[in-house]
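Bench notes, afternoon.
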Amino acid sequence: MNYPHPLLAREGWPFIALSLVLACLGHWWGSWAWGLPLDVVAVFVIQFFRDPPRPIPDDVDAVLAPADGRVIKVERTHDPYAQREAILISVFMNVFNVHSNRASVDGVVTSLAYSPGQFFNADLDKASSENERNAMVIEAQFHGEAKTVTLVQVAGLIARRILCYAQVGQTLTKGERYGFIRFGSRVDVYLPIDATVKVSPGDKVKATMTVLAKL
C-alpha cells in the first residue's frame, strides 16, 4: 500500500471548506430551500476530492492505470513526446471519478512537457492534441531492459487546472501519487509496441488497482 496522503485530496481542501461554510450559512441565515441545495453542492465537492488508498498489484511486468475512469481508446499511434511508435491507451475521467493521478510503472522521469491549449470535451479524439496537457516521459526497467512509458494529463471541458508534482530526474514507484486534475479530464498512456494490452474500450479502470498492460 502506497499512501502518504489524507483521504481527501489536499488540492480540494479550500473548495471543501468553502462549500461547508456556505452550507452552514445557508441553514443559519436562510431556510431548507437555501440550505438543502448548498448541502448537495458540499457533498458533490467532497466526493470529487476523495483520494482513497489503493493496493498495488504484486506484478513486476504490470503497467498500472494512472487514473480512475473509462477506457475510451486503444490504438497504435505515434508518441509525440518520446518520438516513437507506441500503443496508446486513453482513460476518460468524469466528475464522479477519483482525480488524483498515480505512476503506472517504476522508473525515472526523463522529461516533462506542458502544452497550453483548448478545453474540448476530454473524450474527443482531438483532446489529446489540442487541449491543455502535461506529458511525463518515464524510463522504466523491466527485467533489465529499458522501456519508455509516457503519461499525459489532459484537461477536459470544465477542467481548468492540471497539477504535476514530478520533476525531471525523479524516481517514481508504481502507485505513487504524482498529480491531480480538477473537474473532469483524461490521461493518455503511451506504451512500447511490444506491450500486451489487458483492457479494451469501454472497460472501467481504477488507478493503481487495474493492470492496463504487461511489458
